[in-house]
Queue: 4 jobs
Job 1
Amino acid sequence: MVDDELETLAAEAAADPAAMDRLLRRIEPEVLRRCGRFLPCRQDAEEACQDVLLKVAANLAVFEWRSKFSTWLHTIVSNSALSTYRSLKRRSDKQFSSDELIALKPDPRTTSVIAGSRLDLLDALEKLETAKPQVVRPFILRDISQLTYAEIADELEAPIGTVKSQVHDARQAIQELLG
């Protein structure tokens, strides 16, 4: 998704509705794929993808261009996917009693390893956000969005050493949370 042509199109889209339409059509497949890295159900990934596209359309005009558009987009994708997950979790918690939730827990015999591990990771990230919020965003940008340490340092306006340390701390904490 990172290329000069995309960056140019994004800059044009900030002022031109026709360019905005081209930009949204261009990024949609990649945004959906990245949302799918977080959310195991396609419908949930599609919901998060639509949120991302709406946020890009609504906020591109005020984007300050301190970082690349693609880096900004990664941040929006991860925030929207996590927000969608939290929203789905809250809805299911309100909808069912604790006994019903236990009965609805995914059966490991019928749940794919990938889907189950994504849910476990999302739960771990949610817990980590409470305990060590400063390490969550660097971890997501590195291990899920697969940005380089330099790109993350630029996005977070932090030294590379700090970013590496935060990613390391997050990995250790998540390993402990996952058991």
Note: Residues 52 and 178 are 28 Å apart (CA to CA).
Job 2
Amino acid sequence: MTVLIVSGTGTELGKTMTTAAIAAVALAEGRSVAVLKPAQTGVAADEPGDVAEVRRLAGPVTGLELARYPEPLAPATAARRSGLPPVRPRDVAAAAERLAAEHDLVLVEGAGGLLVRFDDEGSTLADAARLLGAPVLVVAAAGLGTLNVTALTAEALRSRGLACAGVVVGSWPAEPDLAMRCNVTDFPESAGVPLVGALPAGVGALSPGDFRARAGGWLGPELSGTWSPVALG
């Protein structure tokens, strides 16, 4: 896959860490990687955003933001309140296509969930994925309640004719509870796609060298890693 959309079932689930892990594995294989963030919210102009964090952990990726809004809100709301132009799906698609012409892999990291609005017309990351014909990787939470929102996200993708590249648990705790352990088995059935990775909680605190060395062990073969659901016990 040349372009992969990294979305989620909500916010603060580990999308950036997942994006960084995929980028690190691809770079280790000798592939050139670009990371596109259509809308960065909640970060001031002089602060590092998600693209900078991916570059810090994964290594020398090409990074591009299309818009940055200071308030930590949905992109459409943040754009409206800031008086800045919103992001449009066609702009996301055009930027991803330009990057894909010069890189082996382009990772497009969304803001929040799949259907969070980009603009007041209701455009979303799903619309950009449709224009690109790109698969969408769903990053989900580990615990109780995640099966419903993961199934809803997968259903939203199917209803739009979009391919789901699988589900990744964005933050797997060192001591998972019963619901989390059961979810490992239940994710594929509820979402209709395989579980293709799980990142340990707190991986962003690792040194870049440790992160890069370990990243392949958090991702399944579908994402060029060695991870298996068996690893979660």
Note: The chain has a mean pLDDT of 96.
Job 3
Amino acid sequence: MSMILVVSGTGTEIGKTVVTAAVAAAARGRRVAVLKPAQTGLAPGEPGDAAEVARLAGSHVTAVELARFPEPLAPATAARRAGLVPVRPFEVAEAAEKLATEHELVLVEGAGGLLVRFDDEGGTLADAARLLSAPVLLVAPAGLGTLNATALTAEALANRGLSCRGVVIGSMPAEPDLASRCNIEDLPVAAGAPLLGAVPAGAGSLSGAAFAARAPGWLAPELGGTRDTR
């Protein structure tokens, strides 16, 4: 039986791609697809987030990108400025459902936060998750300010009837400060969902083999890992 999991974050540049890669790596032995609905800030031919997930996680991952816009902006804005057709939530849902017919796990990685607009009609990743009836894995930073952003995102999920699968820290410092240490206990309260892992800062610079070997240790068993998050 296949599963679709939407990976969102409380903001941008907080580790969604490396968390997606870690979940994909921990699912080795299963057929995994990663779907990036809208890649922004890259020219044609440059490797995007989906390709980076496949590089880090391993050859069992199929990487799919629906749309690409050159400027590093919200997808709706980037599409409009480039004069390109935006990607819409129903297209994301259709692509994910198609991948689910051939893969046991489909990871849909958003752009920016949960409510970043895909199109000028206001379609978001949350709308795609609702169409898919898929749970959302929330990626959050470790440090000061993360609790408010996490609580706001969790509230937005709840208000839309969406399930938060859990929260993963996207970039845990090797020497966490006081706020980061305290947030390990406080993030599950803010999210209203369990802490399911923490990916160390700099993990994305590892080789694919090293990343794939270490990834299960960063994640809880609920995500296929071996980390004790109690």
Note: The first helix runs from residue 16 to 26.
Job 4
Amino acid sequence: MSRRFLFVLGSARAEGNTELLARRAAEQLPADVEQRWIDLAEQPLPDFEDLRHDSDHVRPPSSTPTGLLLDATLAATDIVIASPVYWYSVSAQTKRYLDHWSGWLRIPGLDFKTRMAGRTLWGVAALADEELSVADPYAGTLRNSAAYMEMRFGGVLLGSGSKPGDVLNDTGALTRAKTFFAQDAPLARFPHETAGAV
């Protein structure tokens, strides 16, 4: 299967540091790798409503933002969450997108979890801190989501930046961006599954 990347932009600011860093990493992908970019600010999802126990779940029409994101997610081999670190986790728009995965799991006949298994989840984020470890909760959100879905996890490309364009001064992040998508993405595991592993 040829690789198809979906970049889900979750910033509250257009062309912000996270998007700049994601585009630098995407420039390194081979020309034959399809890229699709969806800005959640331009395709706003409705608030997620948990209807697990009291409603029939139907596939959203492709003409809606929810249906568009579902179709794009299923079409991708690689999903890149490009969200800044907001309060040590993903943005509200990004969290809403991930919350909708819960609904998609319950659409009869869609087999969302089965179809997502084995695909790869990546993260790209800018944060207003030079100490990158403060983004550990962000990385944990994505890693654990990938583990639950039995996906691979390529890790998170982090860059430091607050004002527009700041991340372009983070030479370490720009260097990491050159090889980020070329690295091996192992099957995601929850921390308790890897604790004590040698």
Note: Helices lie at 17-26, 65-75, 92-104, 112-116, 136-148, 171-177, 191-194.
